[in-house]
TrEMBL record:
Pfam families: FBA_1. It comes from the Eukaryota. Residues 4-187 form the F-box associated beta-propeller type domain. This is F-box associated beta-propeller type 1 domain-containing protein. InterPro entries: F-box-assoc_dom_typ1, F-box-assoc_interact_dom, Gal_Oxase/kelch_b-propeller, SCF_F-box_component.
Length: 221
């Protein structure tokens, strides 16, 4: 795999009572050469599936988000390279597209991330004016159910990554890789969170869910 780069995901297939690992890879030096592999924990084997020549996943080495029995990645679709959400159904092992919000202004984005909060597919983005928003798809694959929330205004060096929700209104975020912050959407207020024993900068993290889990990766200062 030294000449390739991948995105990946782990999820539970309720239809077959099986955990599956999915990787979507492409050779660095061969444009358009992509391939998809699925590992079945129950069978103990890898299988290669169809390629996806018309999609390019935005963030390499990114973990897919599990919502409604499917893994999701943020992608750009050729030839216009417009944003789409690429979903992989773990049961029938087919890819499909989930439409992004129709009012999303791609020309005004500094960064754009996919995430899952309270069982809903979400998109987080930062504008050129440093305004941070979350779009939440309240009803899966229903385009009209996208709902927009303003997270606030922040000057960020490394961006922010939502971890999880701890109440209906509170979201825990990693700000600039070294601060855990709780944002209350109802009150539009921030507060910093202290965790005993954590002094290093963390590059990536995830949450345990009923459907799946993601590993923690820590990076020291």
């Amino acid at each position: 795999m030294s000449d390739s780069c991948s995105v990946y995901g782990l999820g539970y297939d309720f239809a077959t009572d099986d955990f599956k690992v999915v990787t979507h890879s492409r050779y660095r030096r061969r444009i358009g050469s992509t391939f998809v592999d699925v590992y079945s924990l129950r069978m103990g084997v890898w299988r290669r599936l169809e390629s996806l020549p018309h999609h390019r996943v935005v963030r390499m080495r990114a973990s897919g988000f599990l919502v409604n029995g499917s893994l999701h990645w943020l992608a750009r679709k050729a030839p216009e390279f417009s944003y789409v959400i690429l979903a992989f159904d773990l049961s029938d092992e087919k890819f499909l597209e989930v439409l992004t919000p129709t009012t999303l202004d791609n020309d005004n984005l500094l960064f754009n991330k996919l995430l899952a909060l309270i069982g809903c597919l979400c998109m987080l983005y930062d504008t050129l004016e440093n305004e941070i928003y979350i779009w939440m798809m309240r009803e899966y694959r229903v385009e009209e159910s996208w709902t927009k929330f303003r997270v606030g205004r922040m000057d960020l060096e490394h961006g922010l990554v939502p971890f999880c929700t701890i109440s209906d209104d509170d979201i825990v975020l990693n700000v600039d890789r070294d601060k855990l912050t709780v944002y209350n959407m109802k009150e539009d207020q921030w507060r910093y969170m202290k965790v005993d024993g954590i002094t290093a900068m963390f590059e990536r993290a995830g949450t345990f869910t009923e459907e799946s889990f993601f590993s923690y990766v820590w990076q020291g200062n």
